[in-house]
C-alpha cells in the first residue's frame, strides 16, 4: 500500500527539491550555531574552574580541564567548517536552478558531491548528510558514493605531542598569572598543614566536580 501511495504521490519539480534541500541545510546550520554557542558558554565555566584549580595548586585538575578545552575548541572548529561547507552546498544548489529551468531536471554537480562526501565523514552531521546523499543521488545531482574512511596520515605520537603543546598554551592563556604565583601558594599550603582526612575529602570533591564538568562538555559537544 505504501508503494502505491509513493507511486501516486506527485514528484517534486527541480526547483521545489532545491528549496526543500536549502531549507533543511539552513535548519542544520542553525542547529550547528546553537551547538557552538553551548560549547563556548560551557568553556567559560571551565576557564573559571581552571583558575580555581591553579589557585589551589591543583595542576593535575587544571591540566585535565585545559585538555577538555582543547578538545572543545577543536570540536567548535569542526562545527564552523561543517557550517561553511553546508552554506557552500546551498550556494551551489542555488546556481543549479537556472540550469534546471533550461533542461527540466537537476544536473550532476561534482562540487556538491565532494562537499556532501566530506560532511558524511563528520560525526556531528553524518546522519543528516547520508539522508541528503540518498535524496540527491535519486534526483541525479550526485553519483552514488562509497564513504571510505581515510587513513590518518599523522602519527599518533605527533598528535599527542601537539595536544600537549596546546594544553600548555591554554593553561598559560587562562591561568598564566596564577601559575606564576604557584610556588608561593604551595608554601602557604605547607604552612597550613591541613588534616589528612580533610584533604582527601577535598580531593574527592574536586574529582567529582571535574567529572561533572567533563560530562557537561561531552554533552554539549555531542
TrEMBL record:
<feature type="region of interest" description="Disordered">
    <location>
        <begin position="185"/>
        <end position="210"/>
    </location>
</feature>
<feature type="compositionally biased region" description="Acidic residues">
    <location>
        <begin position="199"/>
        <end position="210"/>
    </location>
</feature>
<dbReference type="GO" id="GO:0007034">
    <property type="term" value="P:vacuolar transport"/>
</dbReference>
<dbReference type="InterPro" id="IPR005024">
    <property type="entry name" value="Snf7_fam"/>
</dbReference>
<protein>
    <recommendedName>
        <fullName>Vacuolar protein sorting-associated protein 24 homolog 1-like</fullName>
    </recommendedName>
</protein>
<feature type="region of interest" description="Disordered">
    <location>
        <begin position="1"/>
        <end position="20"/>
    </location>
</feature>
<dbReference type="Pfam" id="PF03357">
    <property type="entry name" value="Snf7"/>
</dbReference>
Amino acid at each position: 500500500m505504501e508503494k502505491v501511495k509513493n507511486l501516486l504521490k506527485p514528484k517534486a519539480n527541480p526547483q521545489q527539491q532545491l528549496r526543500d534541500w536549502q531549507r533543511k541545510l539552513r535548519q542544520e546550520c542553525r542547529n550547528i550555531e546553537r551547538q557552538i554557542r553551548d560549547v563556548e558558554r560551557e568553556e567559560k565555566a571551565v576557564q573559571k574552574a581552571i583558575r580555581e584549580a591553579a589557585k589551589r595548586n591543583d595542576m593535575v585538575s587544571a591540566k585535565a580541564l585545559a585538555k577538555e578545552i582543547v578538545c572543545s575548541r577543536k570540536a567548535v572548529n569542526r562545527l564552523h567548517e561543517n557550517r561553511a561547507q553546508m552554506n557552500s552546498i546551498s550556494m551551489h544548489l542555488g546556481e543549479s536552478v537556472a540550469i534546471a529551468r533550461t533542461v527540466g531536471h537537476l544536473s550532476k554537480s561534482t562540487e556538491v558531491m565532494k562537499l556532501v562526501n566530506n560532511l558524511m565523514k563528520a560525526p556531528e552531521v553524518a546522519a543528516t548528510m547520508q539522508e541528503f546523499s540518498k535524496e540527491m543521488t535519486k534526483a541525479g545531482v550526485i553519483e552514488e558514493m562509497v564513504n571510505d574512511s581515510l587513513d590518518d596520515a599523522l602519527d599518533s605520537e605527533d598528535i599527542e605531542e601537539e595536544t600537549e603543546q596546546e594544553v600548555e598554551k591554554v593553561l598559560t592563556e587562562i591561568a598564566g598569572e596564577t601559575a606564576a604565583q604557584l610556588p608561593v601558594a604551595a608554601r602557604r599550603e605547607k604552612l597550613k598543614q591541613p588534616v589528612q582526612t580533610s584533604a582527601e575529602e577535598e580531593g574527592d570533591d574536586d574529582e567529582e566536580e571535574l567529572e561533572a564538568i567533563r560530562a557537561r562538555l561531552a554533552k554539549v559537544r555531542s
